[in-house]
Design goal:
Endonuclease III, domain 1; two-stranded parallel ribbon; 10 helices
Length: about 190
């Protein structure tokens, strides 16, 4: 039997996300933007709730193409507030557009969102070396720093816990537990 982290349980969507995406280093601006926005949508909810709505978010938010999202009108976002396929929270939905605008400014300053985000970990995946579920933190000094800087730049829904979840998902840290088959695969791919 394949050993994996505790959190996907038996849900097939969650297992596929764990096995194929979570913790794989992302260096694509569009995908990094998508991940940070979706982590923000999760605030106060479980990740599986967002994961099951991800395709609909992609459809409604222009596949998270940063320039297109930055141009969304209030009218469009207000219409999205009526869409049961999304998390209907006004601040969360508007944050996607404001994050796109903040992301554009970061791209202008750093050349890419990728360059900026990965600078927090010196462009290398941190090996979390987590043995047990209890060893996995909710936030770290690095996620505190990222959160503070993102907020200063106008990003919304980027508290330290959200930033750490983003770092885990986007492969800035390998937080698969030591007994998980993905921990070894990802560790050996660097």
């Amino acid at each position: 039997m394949t050993k994996r982290c505790w959190w996907p349980g038996t849900d097939e969507i969650y297992i596929a996300y764990h096995d194929e995406e979570w913790g794989v280093p992302i260096h694509d601006d569009r995908l990094l933007f998508e991940f940070i926005c979706l982590e923000g949508q999760q605030a106060g909810l479980s990740w599986i709730t967002v994961l099951k709505k991800r395709d609909h978010y992609r459809k409604c938010f222009k596949n998270f193409e940063i320039d297109k999202v930055a141009r969304l009108t209030d009218k469009t976002i207000e219409k999205h507030l009526l869409d049961a396929g999304l998390i209907r929270n006004r601040l969360k939905l508007y944050s996607i557009r404001s994050n796109a605008k903040a992301c554009q400014a970061v791209q202008r300053e750093f050349g890419s969102f990728d360059q900026y985000i990965w600078s927090f970990v010196d462009s290398k995946t941190i090996d979390g070396k987590r043995k047990l579920r209890e060893d996995v933190p909710a936030s770290t000094a690095t996620s505190d720093e990222m959160s503070k800087d993102l907020k200063k730049r106008g990003f919304k829904f980027v508290g330290s816990t959200i930033c750490y979840a983003f770092m885990q998902a986007a492969g800035l840290v390998n937080d698969h537990t030591g007994n998980c088959f993905r921990y070894r695969e990802l560790k050996n791919s660097h």
